[in-house]
Amino acid sequence: MSKLPWARVMPVLLAFGVLAALPALISGFYVELAMKVMILAIFALSLELLVGQTGLVCFGHAAFFGIGAYAVTLLSPEGEAGSLWWTLPAACGAAGVYALAVGALSLRTKGVYFIMITLAFAQMAYFVVHDTPLGGGSDGIYLYFKPVAAVAGHTLLDLDKPTQLYGFVWACLGACFVASAVLLKSRFGRALAGIKANEQRMRAAGFATFGYKLAIFVVSAMMAGLAGYLFALKDGFVNPEMLSWHQSGAVLIMIILGGLGHLRGAVLGAFAFALLQELFQSQAVFGAFAKHWQLMLGLTIIAFVALMPRGLVGLLHKEGAK
After folding, report:
1. Is 59:115 a contact under the CB 8 Å cutoff?
2. At what angle do helices 245-258 and 111-131 cross, to 10 degrees?
3. Backbone angles phi, psi at 111, to 5 degrees
4. Could you give phi then psi for residue 154, rounded to 5 degrees?
């Protein structure tokens, strides 16, 4: 049993080490792809806290992702770089505030009603940025200058430099993974596990389950806002599709593909989903049939779910192990 934690930790440390070394081994498009996958992994981790760890199936998670992206774009001054010290907390805070309002209403429902209400709130946010001048309409908004972290006039971190942006995204993924693992090992995390197993029994034991669910809903949204913030920095552009139900469905597929109930599964699922998408879109591999990449991706995901009901993370465990 004493060896079990190391058996789980070492592959994670090795994976993060490989990610840290990637810029020295690859360049150009592949570095951009690695950043995209790491950002999606943060997004998937945020939803895993709700679905896999608490049993709250949210189908409007893209709203928080998009709010974080739009926040940094709208709050950055024109013609100059904004400050990382306040645009990052503002983006996460904006996603958290919206989640507080959404959660206060939606968490009073259960099952399919909760799913539909979160979807409805996400669509409301989508149409706000799509149909009003605030979000630039369907054309979206460009972020011409990426934030910098400076102290006393000295720049510590310039996210306009690809290497520094990559390192920042890598650090954010590591921080989110560690913070999520620590949270789930805490008393708060044990309460979430109890709510997922039997919420009625937890209430009978004296736990205010609504408060716990609302708290993790806000935490999850803030992490999704961080992912959206990083995505806006990577692309230098945001559009309403970041808040669409398609995006919410995609991240839900990621955690199912990776394996529900495991943080590593969320990260594995994000990597697998993004890499499969890039593979099937490659004309060098599939030629003219690459335009039907969504069909191939869908069939592949169905095959994965049918053959590996525990997800990709199930391959890392012996049969019958948790």
Report:
1. yes
2. 130
3. 60, -135
4. -105, 125
Helix, strand, or coil here: 154? strand
What is the pTM assigned to this prediction?
0.92
Q: At what angle do helices 245-258 and 263-280 cross, to 10 degrees?
A: 120
Band of residue 103 on the pLDDT scale cut at 50, 70, 90: very high
Residue type for 224, please? A
CA distance 116 to 58: 8
Closest by Cα among 263, 252, 195, 262 to 59: 252
Largest CA distance in the chain: 61
- Looking at residue 261, the DSSP 8-state letter turns out to be T
Mean of the per-residue pLDDT values for the chain?
Answer: 88
Mean pLDDT in residue range 146-152: 83
Q: Tell me the H-state helices in the chain.
A: 4-25, 29-54, 62-75, 84-106, 111-131, 162-185, 187-204, 209-235, 245-258, 263-280, 283-286, 293-307
Map out the domains of the chain as residue ranges.
31-242
Q: How far is CA 16 from the centre of its chain?
A: 17
Q: Closest by alpha carbon to 122, among 68, 66, 74?
A: 66
Structure tokens at 129: 């940025």
Look at residue 230 in the predicted model and tell me its pLDDT: 95
Contact (CB, 8 A) for 59 and 252: yes
Amino acid at residue number 74? L
Q: Residue 160: what residue type?
A: D
For residues 86 and 49, give the distance between their C-alpha atoms in angstroms, rounded to a whole number.
25
Q: β-strands 148-151, 154-158: how paired?
A: antiparallel
In the structure, what pLDDT confidence band is assigned to residue 5 with cuts at 50, 70 and 90? low
Distances (CA, A) of 247 to 128, 228, 251, 253: 17, 12, 6, 10
More confident of the two residues 36 and 151: 36
